[in-house]
C-alpha cells in the first residue's frame, strides 16, 4: 500500500490493516392519509391509514401498515339534552395502531468486528461476531380508548375521563445469550413477546378568572397497570424470563420486577453482611422464591443464588400526572407546572457503591463514620471496613455454623 491518507493523519504504508466505512445509517419512508366527517353537528367519524418502511429491518419486513378509527357522539347537541350546567358532553372511542423501530441500525445483519491482536505488532488482528442475523420486524401497539369529555358553567370548567388499553406485540428487546456464542457483549435484539398496559386517565381544566387579570388551572392523573402476556416459548417453559442484573420479566407478571437478594443486616459476631437463603429446589422446579428462614453471608456466589422475586416492586410508576397554573396580566404571564409519579421503586446505586470501600474507586458516604462494625457484639449499620470487601476464612466459619 502506498500513498497517504490525510484524514487518518499518517502514512499507512506500515499498517497491517485499514478500513473505511459508512455505518449506522437509517431511513424511513412513509405514506399516510386521513379523513374525517361530522354529521348534524353531533356525530363524528375519523379514520387514518399510514404505511411505513424502515431500513433497520430486513427487506422482507421493512413495510408495515398502521390503521386508526375514531368515533364521537356529542350528546349535548341532542334535542333531549336539558342539563343546564353542562354545556358540552361528548362520548368518544377510538382504535389506533402505532409502530416502533427504535433500535440501532443493521441489527438484522450478521456482522463481524476486529479483535485486538496479542503480542507484537507483527501478529495480525482477528475478527469476531458482533451480531447474528435475525428476521426483526416492527413492534406494533394496538391502542383502544373510550372516554367522556365535558364542559360546565359556560365551559369555565372542562375535562375528560377515559379508559385505555394498549396491547404491544412483537416487542423489540435485547436478550442475553451465552457468552460461549462469541457475540460481543452477549446480547442481541429480538422480537420477544407481547405486553399490555391498561388504566384510566382524568383531566380537568378551569378558567378561574377572566378579564385583565387571568388565571387558568389544569390537573391530570393517569393510573396504569402493566402485564406481560407472553415471551418466547423457551423463556416461558424454563420460567427464567428476561433477566438483567437486578430485574426479571416473566409472562403473567409486570415488566422489570426487582429480583435481588434480601438484606438481613450485619452479623454481630463477625461484622459481615447477611442475606436470606432461598429454597433452591423449589426455585428450580417452580421458578418461585421461598425463604428457608436461614441467614447466610452476602458473598458474591450467595447473592447470585439467593435472589428473591419482588412481584409488587418495579421501577415503572403505576400512576403519574401534572398540575399547572398560569397567571396573565397586561402582557406578562407566569406558569407554575408540577409533575409527579409514584407506585415505583428506585434501586439506589449511590447507597450500594457509597457504603462499600471495595478498592477505593468510589467516594464513600460520611454516614459510615462511627457506624461500622468493629468488635464482636456491635449492633452496627454497616459491616467492618475491609479492602475489596475481603473476609478470608470468615465466610466459611459462618456457613459451617
What would your notes on this structure say?
The chain is mainly β and 401 residues long. The chain is built from five helices and 21 strands. The protein has helices at 233-238, 280-286, 300-305, 349-354, 394-399, and strands at 28-39, 43-54, 63-74, 86-100, 111-115, 126-131, 139-152, 157-169, 172-176, 187-191, 194-209, 213-230, 242-243, 247-249, 257-260, 263-266, 273-278, 291-297, 308-314, 319-329, 332-342. The strands form five sheets. A ten-stranded antiparallel sheet has the order 1-2-3-4-7-8-11-12-20-21, with no helix packed on it. A hairpin with a 3-residue loop joins strand 11 (194-209) and strand 12 (213-230). The radius of gyration is 30 Å and the shape is extended. The N and C termini lie far apart (70 Å). Residues 1-6 have low confidence and may be disordered.
Amino acid at each position: 500500500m502506498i500513498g497517504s491518507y490525510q484524514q487518518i493523519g499518517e502514512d499507512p504504508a506500515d499498517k497491517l490493516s485499514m478500513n473505511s466505512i459508512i455505518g449506522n445509517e437509517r431511513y424511513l419512508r412513509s405514506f399516510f392519509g386521513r379523513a374525517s366527517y361530522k354529521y348534524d353537528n353531533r356525530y363524528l367519524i375519523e379514520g387514518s391509514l399510514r404505511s411505513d418502511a424502515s431500513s433497520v429491518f430486513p427487506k422482507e419486513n421493512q413495510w408495515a401498515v398502521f390503521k386508526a378509527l375514531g368515533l364521537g357522539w356529542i350528546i349535548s347537541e341532542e334535542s333531549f339534552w336539558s342539563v343546564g350546567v353542562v354545556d358540552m358532553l361528548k362520548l368518544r372511542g377510538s382504535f389506533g395502531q402505532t409502530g416502533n423501530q427504535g433500535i440501532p441500525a443493521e441489527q438484522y445483519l450478521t456482522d463481524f468486528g476486529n479483535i485486538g491482536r496479542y503480542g507484537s505488532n507483527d501478529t495480525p488482528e482477528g475478527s469476531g461476531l458482533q451480531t447474528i442475523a435475525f428476521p426483526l420486524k416492527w413492534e406494533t401497539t394496538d391502542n383502544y380508548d373510550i372516554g367522556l369529555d365535558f364542559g360546565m358553567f359556560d365551559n369555565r370548567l372542562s375535562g375528560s375521563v377515559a379508559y385505555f388499553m394498549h396491547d404491544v406485540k412483537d416487542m423489540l428487546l435485547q436478550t442475553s445469550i451465552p457468552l460461549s456464542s462469541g457475540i460481543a457483549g452477549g446480547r442481541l435484539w429480538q422480537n420477544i413477546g407481547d405486553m399490555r398496559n391498561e388504566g384510566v386517565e382524568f383531566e380537568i381544566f378551569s378558567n378561574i378568572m377572566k378579564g385583565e387579570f387571568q388565571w387558568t388551572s389544569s390537573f391530570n392523573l393517569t393510573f396504569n397497570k402493566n402485564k406481560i402476556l407472553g415471551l418466547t416459548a423457551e423463556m416461558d417453559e424454563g420460567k427464567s424470563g428476561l433477566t438483567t442484573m437486578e430485574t426479571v420479566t416473566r409472562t403473567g407478571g409486570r415488566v422489570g420486577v426487582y429480583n435481588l437478594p434480601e438484606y438481613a443486616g450485619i452479623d454481630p459476631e463477625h461484622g459481615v453482611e447477611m442475606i436470606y437463603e432461598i429454597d433452591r429446589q423449589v426455585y428450580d422446579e417452580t421458578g418461585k422464591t421461598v425463604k428457608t428462614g436461614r441467614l447466610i453471608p452476602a458473598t458474591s456466589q450467595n447473592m447470585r443464588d439467593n435472589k428473591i422475586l419482588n412481584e409488587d416492586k418495579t421501577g415503572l410508576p403505576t400512576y403519574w400526572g401534572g398540575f399547572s397554573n398560569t397567571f396573565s396580566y397586561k402582557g406578562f404571564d407566569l406558569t407554575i407546572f408540577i409533575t409527579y409519579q409514584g407506585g415505583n421503586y428506585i434501586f439506589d446505586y449511590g447507597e450500594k457503591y457509597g457504603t462499600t470501600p471495595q478498592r477505593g474507586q468510589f467516594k464513600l458516604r460520611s454516614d459510615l463514620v462511627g457506624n461500622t462494625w468493629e468488635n464482636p457484639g456491635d449492633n452496627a449499620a454497616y459491616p467492618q471496613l475491609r479492602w475489596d470487601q475481603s473476609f478470608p476464612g470468615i465466610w466459611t466459619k459462618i456457613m459451617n455454623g
